Amino acid sequence: MVARGFWPGGTFDPGGVLEVLTRPRVARVAWFTVWSSAVGTAVAVILGLPAAFVLHRLAVPGRRVLRAAMLVPFVLPTVVVGVAFRLLLGEGGPLGFLDLDGTPAAIVAGLVFFNVAVVIRAVGAAWESLDPRPAEAAAALGASPSQVWWTVTLPTLRPAIVSAASVVFLFCSTAFGVVLILGGVRHATIETEIYLLTTTLFDLQAAAALSVLQMVVVVVLLGVAARLRSTPDAASQRSAARPRRPRVSDAPALVATGVVITLVAVPIVTLVVGSMRTDEGWSLANYRALGVGGTDVLPVPVTGALVTSVRTAVDATWMALAMGLAVALLVTRRSHSRGERRVRSVLDGIFMLPLGVSAVTLGFGFLITLDRPPVDLRDSALLVPIAQALVALPLVVRTLVPVLAAIDDRQRQAAASLGASPWRTLLSIDLLVVWKPLLAASGFAFAASLGEFGATSFLARDDNPTVPVVIFRLLGHPGDLNYGMALAASVILATTTALVMMAVERLRVPSAGAL
Which helix (H) or strand (E) holds 371? Predict the structure, then answer.
């Protein structure tokens, strides 16, 4: 991509990149990306903080189920989220009277829906392990609940809050499916602009220039997030506090949590209801139509596309697990020098890049790189699984690294001193500890691959699409039947993803909170 941006036709041309970056539309797209991501991040943090407190510090009924349910929006395919909000806010939808369809407000709402789970998960994990004694001491000395919050709790939680906000901003700025469906061409971000320049305008130099710009910004943001994540705080140094019974003073947080749960549930319920409504009333006709293919809009039945999605996700999962386990073992081994420690840190950062570098950029990079011998994978069935495995790789690494890093290296040394080979030590020490987190990581990787759309939209073949690609094609063609089938396919994909994440929640480990 760097070569396509700076050396078009083999000639160094930095002026071409500068011309792209100074275009009026690019400036508007960049500004919209920044401010929509900032607003989405602020709203997600404001809504996520009380929910994190209630679901991680209070003994409310069904809190485990609620925590799992709140995680589902984060792993839903972005196409499904876009469809749900269009149905909710569009003409004839429950909130259609607000006239927000196709507006920046709709995009921000979709971003908040998608990312509020990050704040709940990350801040909640820190809040759960927060020592309650300083706050209790402040209250005993006469501090009001608001004073306890501002002077004791917030300073302790600040690293977790800022780190979560950094990650949310990263996800908002690289969102693709949500912005593409809700904003179209009128309200574009850098992410969707790269897609437009590549697939519609065929301006590869401009797309490459924006991709390089995006990667530079992402590297900076990942560096900031890594420094914030490594900031020591008191919460991470104590064992988890037992949840307490709700009090009268917790009423505002409980009400705010109820609002968050409602905001998360309404788009999903609207999607399910819309998939079963037709001109003739309530019917499963949209679901039955998914089994019919062979048309220009739907070349294969959605059932076949679901099989393709599952098969591709299985391949991507084992690839991501193999790479992720190797990376996690590499970066968590004890370093013998400062230089070796820095090398391991750099490697960890490199393998985390797909978490922030957009899937569209990743798919575009594959498209222009693996298109000629000796590595020509354009017609290979492995191309899409490889791209999806790279998208899922950071989730696997972030799940496994904290667990492996917590293993006392003296256990490995003791096993080696007793005559165990390196492989025997790996099997008897590391894998014995990491097998349960590995199962959880496999669930995250499978769910992420199942709904991946950005890279897949570039790489999937017309005769072998995945379900997210089929949904986007159905939405792009007018007709009530096409729209109804898109809703039905979205429900099937969302249900499959939710079931996977419910299973992952039962295997949840403390490190998963960092996701």
Answer: strand 371-372
Contact status, residue 54 vs residue 218, Cβ threshold 8 Å: no
Taking the model in full, what pTM does it have? 0.76
Structure tokens at 325: 């386990």
- Pick from 458, 490, 368, 476: nearest CA to 83: 490
Identify which of 87, 492, 496, 495 has the alpha carbon closest to the alpha carbon of residue 291. Answer: 492
Go through the domains of the chain in sequence order and give each one's CATH number: 1-271 (1.10.3720.10), 280-515 (1.10.3720.10)
**Which residue type is seen at 309?**
S
Q: Please answer whether residues 430 and 477 qualify as being in contact, where contact means their C-beta atoms are separated by less than 8 angstroms.
A: no
Q: Could you tell me the two tokens for 491?
A: 């429900």
Cα 286 from Cα 486, distance rounded (Å): 8
- DSSP single-letter state for residue 419: T
- Report pLDDT digits (tens) over 89-144: 888 788 888 888 888 999 999 999 988 988 888 788 778 777 777 877 888 888 87
Helix residue ranges, H only, 237-336: 251-275, 285-289, 302-332
Rounded to 10°, the helix 467-475/78-89 angle is 30
Going by their DSSP bridges, the two strands 375-376 and 281-282 should be labelled as unpaired
Amino acid at 425: T
Condensed to tens digits (0 to 9), the pLDDT of residues 282-293 reads 888 888 888 776
Q: What is the DSSP letter of 429?
A: I
